[in-house]
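Support case: fructose -6-phosphate complex. Customer-provided input:
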Amino acid sequence: EKEGYDHFMIKEINEQATAVRNTLTQRENIENIIKDFDDITRICFVACGTSYHASLTGKYLIESLAGIPTDVILASEFKFSQKTLNENTLVIFISQSGETADSLKALDVANETSKTLGIVNVAGSSITRRAQYVIQTQAGPEIGVAATKTYVSQLTAIYLFAALMAKDENLLNELNNVPDFIDEVLKDVESIKSMSKRYNYAKDFFYLGRGYSYPTALEGALKLKEISYIHGEGYAAGELKHGPLALIDEGIPVVVVIPPGDSHKKTMSNLEEVKSRGARVLAFGAADDEELALKAPEVFKINPEVSEIIAPLVYIVPLQLLSYYITIEKGFDPDKPRNLAKCVTVE
Ligand code: F6R
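Agent response - structure generated as follows:
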């Protein structure tokens, strides 16, 4: 079943362009669904783990493109927000399995007052049966415990949703390029392999990103923790000086997600901050970014056409690869991380 790959995780990482392409076919379905959402004045995402990170990206997209106030709530913390829901609230449940107990519990509550939409990968799962509206992500079965292709598929559905709500034709067009951008990243796997050999010694990693790249930093750090057992901490780049900068010292690897765009300049100054304190910076940025090439000792180069807004769909791929190869270097099985299950059916 692994079709020649060593692990399901690497097979699934390599299936991501297809997963995005297949999920883009949901456009018409999403167009039909949102016809019912004219009266929506607030959106709440409810999710856990990786699906929570996809939701955070959704908040940024929906608020900045469609101007609809949007919250992101961890399913396990949902009860505090219950009384704020009403008939003009749309509650979106993101889940690859469609069976996560905390999300299901919140869904039953939300169904009493509000419109509910599930963005789910597993057809016929509990969330698809109980949500009022469903968008099916088209990643195909995901066996590796660490979510990879389901994450980019969730993002694809969210981008379609936000772009259609905002009637943003430019973004809708840009999305069609994403599968090719992902495949380009996958061609450069050797760079990531050699990076993983140089950094697998680390006990701690930091991941920094700003704006659309902040959830990417969180997700990159989660992938590292769950399979390599290295402590990875994702941070909004601007929050660094409000505490964690105290932890930055000689030799600590800091992954900086820095695509071209509005937040580039500020993220660059954060990069310089950590570098001057001795951090080993691993930057993920545009291939033609000359300033980055000068300032960062190590840069993974991505097609410059990947703009800041679509970066979350592409920049996560090298971070998944980095976690995978570090895990291989350390001799652990990335498909079966200790203590974790693919589907969390207890609260
Ligand atoms: C991380 C991972 C978990 C899940 C979380 C939610 O790689 O897979 O963090 O994202 O348990 O699961 P779903 O999306 O099935 O609700």
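The chain has 14 helices and ten strands.

Case will auto-close in a few days if no follow-up is received.
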